[in-house]
Amino acid sequence: MSTFWSLWIIVLTLTNLVLVLWVLLANKKVAVRDDADPENKTTGHVYDGIEEYDNPLPKWWFQMFILTMVFAVFYLAAYPGLGSWKGLLGWTSVNQLEAEQEKALESYKESYGVYNEMSIEELAQDPRANKMGARLFANNCAVCHGADAGGNFGFPNLTDHDWLYGGTPDAIKATLTNGRRAAMPAWGSILGEEKIAQVTEYVLSVSGREHDAAQAEVGSKLFLQNCAICHGADAKGQHITGAPNLTDDIWLYDGSPAGIRQTLRNGRNGVMPAQGDKLREDKIHLLTAYVYSLSQDFE
């Protein structure tokens, strides 16, 4: 805050306090009296037959106002309320928040801390840990991946064995902590519509669907030249790039011929937001175990 605005707030605040005090003291005494009629205790204001009396404030009421003014003076001295004045107690909202967070962390150690030393594989088979993980998932992940973790258009299904960046405990935790940013480039301006159609036919062929064999043969060469670096020469995808497997029947986006052409033409840019700055490490540990459990077949 600049010096000008700090002084402006200080002057405005103190001026208002002084004016309020002046109004309070001015109403302590009787201001109007009719010398010709000493018994007349009205101000002379009449409205609808109702006369306004000129009585002083009740003593108890006046004393409460005075106590309020005294409190205001001590409050403004102790806490930041006058421009850039930090207050004698050094209180800040940030300090209070951090103190409350520290207190909350201590109380959470009993519920979350007990799981910190357990491995993801162990937690994934612990019913109580999974119940806590399910609540964390519902609050933070279900809006994109669905309440059942079955995924939505552009958001992966977490209950199968198909993983863009790997389904190991370490890979899942890395995804949750740091997030992921996919980048499927747009090929429309590079390949043109004819070549995009040929690559589409090749993609249809490797996933075992009806396709144009002649077009697919040409598309295979284009795929090796432009797509294999991410999806692999066998089109089965790579975890290191996050490129999906194109040989199965699992599609993150539309897997129809028109949908594949749309993806090739305009590209895709999926984002998995990082949770490391939102969730504590112990919560991410539990959430990792829950997500890992969704794709496992425990006996």
Set down the secondary structure blueprint.
Elements: H1 3-26, E1 42-47, E2 50-53, H2 59-78, H3 93-112, H4 120-123, H5 127-140, H6 142-145, H7 169-178, E3 180-181, H8 188-206, H9 213-226, H10 228-231, H11 257-266, E4 271-272, H12 281-294
Antiparallel strand pairs: 1-2, 3-4
Helix pairs in contact: 5-12, 7-12, 8-9, 8-11
Task: Characterise the protein shown here.
The chain is mainly α and 299 residues long. It has three domains: 3-78, no CATH class; 120-181 and 273-294, Cytochrome c-like domain (Cytochrome Bc1 Complex, Chain D, domain 2, Orthogonal Bundle), CATH 1.10.760; 188-269, Orthogonal Bundle (Cytochrome Bc1 Complex, Chain D, domain 2), CATH 1.10.760.10. Helices cover 53% and strands 5% of the residues. A two-stranded antiparallel sheet has the order 1-2. The relative contact order is 0.11.
- The CATH homologous superfamily of the largest domain is named Cytochrome c-like domain
CATH-defined fold name of the largest domain: Cytochrome Bc1 Complex, Chain D, domain 2
Mean pLDDT: 90
Which architecture of the largest domain per CATH?
Orthogonal Bundle
List the secondary-structure elements in sequence, H or E: HEEHHHHHHEHHHHEH
Question: What is the name of the CATH class of the largest domain?
Answer: Mainly Alpha
What form results from the Cα inertia axes? elongated
Helix tally equals 12
Largest sheet: 2 strands, antiparallel
Number of domains: 3
